[in-house]
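ZP: hey, is the heme C complex queued? I don't see it on the tracker
AM: it wasn't, my bad. submitting now with these inputs:
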Amino acid sequence: MMKFVRVGAIAAALTLSLPAFAEGNVEAGRIKANTCMGCHGIPQYDNAYPRYRVPKIGGQHRDYIVAALKEYRSGNRPHKTMQAQAASLSDQDIEDIASYLEHSAAHK
Ligand code: HEC
């Protein structure tokens, strides 16, 4: 009997703690990612000057996008354009955007 109570308590604790680990909000991310699409939404987009390719971010794994954006934001990853983009993002923004991008079927 005690065993079942304990399992139940653990299950309840896990359920309750879920929101802390919840993925970002895909819908919120769709809106927040709007500005990103100016560059990342155009297939084969090349920046005019200096000339560089804009990487595909739609369909990437969310952890990868979260890591990349936090690196840009902290300045660990060098790229002026993306550092400027990431500078204004909160952790929640990053989670939301990453979730949206992971789920976005369009491989941009
Ligand atoms: C002005 C154009 C522009 C905008 C706007 C822009 N990006 Fe980028 N992004 C780039 C370029 C160029 C790179 C490649 C930088 C590099 O080589 O490190 C990049 C790189 C990235 C990467 C790393 C991809 C990889 O494969 O390593 C991620 C993630 C990313 N951007 C997400 C975003 C998000 C999210 C937004 C919106 C908040 C955004 N970008 C807005 C141009 C842009």
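AM: back. The domain at 23-103 is CATH 1.10.760.10 (Cytochrome Bc1 Complex; Chain D, domain 2).
ZP: great, adding it to the tracker
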